[in-house]
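Q: Please design a sequence for this.
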């Protein structure tokens, strides 16, 4: 990857470039040139090797990964996996070898026998609400740590607070658009990482954020720009 802003650098390591946010909520999303976040419901067709390198770098830096249950199902999430040398680097920084994944599910209805839970080396977390069925919460607790944040709807501010009390300072959110919109509405985003894929999709795919208009739409500062293989890697901060 080469860096175009804030200064031009011919070659940078994404893991080093993105290491300047050790504490906060970082959102990582990909969109086509025309704004699509998926092709037939999946984001994979928008990506490529450059995008996957940045995706891996961001995961290597995070204390915990936050994802909505719908995105977990649609994208076929499994446990986070990192190479041995990356795990060693995390240990030296005082992090767990692999970041756990926290799934946001108001109904707390997931496939508890899926590889996501059954093959996880870092115990997953399930973020749900007091109103979730008791049996679902009981099943969740058998394979994951359960965080209750809110009564009818998930209170993401409370969820982020609970994650931080567990020592998870760096939170990497990976969508989907509804979760992203809720994070933005609650003022919880410390950085937005947007990969612009050199792809035109058309159709009616959702934007990176969905939901009601924000009460106070805010300006964001362009923090850095990288480029690799036609992909643009944009970082914005409030």
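A: Design:
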């Amino acid at each position: 990857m080469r860096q175009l802003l804030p200064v031009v650098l011919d070659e940078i390591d994404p893991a080093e470039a993105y290491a300047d946010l050790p504490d906060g909520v970082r959102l990582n999303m990909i969109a086509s040139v025309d704004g699509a976040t998926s092709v037939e419901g999946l984001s994979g067709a928008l990506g490529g090797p450059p995008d996957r390198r940045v995706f891996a770098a961001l995961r290597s830096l995070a204390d915990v990964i936050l994802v909505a249950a719908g995105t977990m199902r649609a994208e076929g999430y499994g446990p986070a996996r990192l190479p041995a040398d990356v795990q060693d680097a995390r240990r030296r920084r005082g992090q767990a070898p692999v970041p756990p994944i926290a799934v946001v599910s108001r109904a707390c209805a997931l496939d508890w026998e899926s590889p996501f839970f059954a093959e996880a080396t870092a115990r997953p977390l399930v973020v749900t609400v007091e109103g979730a069925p008791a049996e679902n919460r009981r099943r969740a607790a058998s394979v994951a740590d359960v965080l209750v944040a809110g009564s009818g709807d998930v209170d993401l501010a409370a969820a982020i607070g609970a994650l931080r009390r567990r020592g998870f300072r760096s939170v990497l959110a990976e969508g989907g658009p509804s979760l992203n919109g809720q994070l933005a509405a609650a003022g919880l985003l410390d950085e937005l990482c947007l990969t612009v894929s050199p792809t035109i999709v058309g159709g009616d795919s959702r934007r990176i954020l969905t939901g009601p208009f924000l009460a106070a739409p805010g300006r964001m500062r362009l923090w850095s720009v990288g480029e690799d293989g036609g992909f643009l890697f944009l970082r914005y901060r409030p």
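Q: Thanks. Anything notable?
A: DSSP finds eight helices and ten strands in the chain. The CA atoms of residues 3 and 233 lie 9 Å apart.
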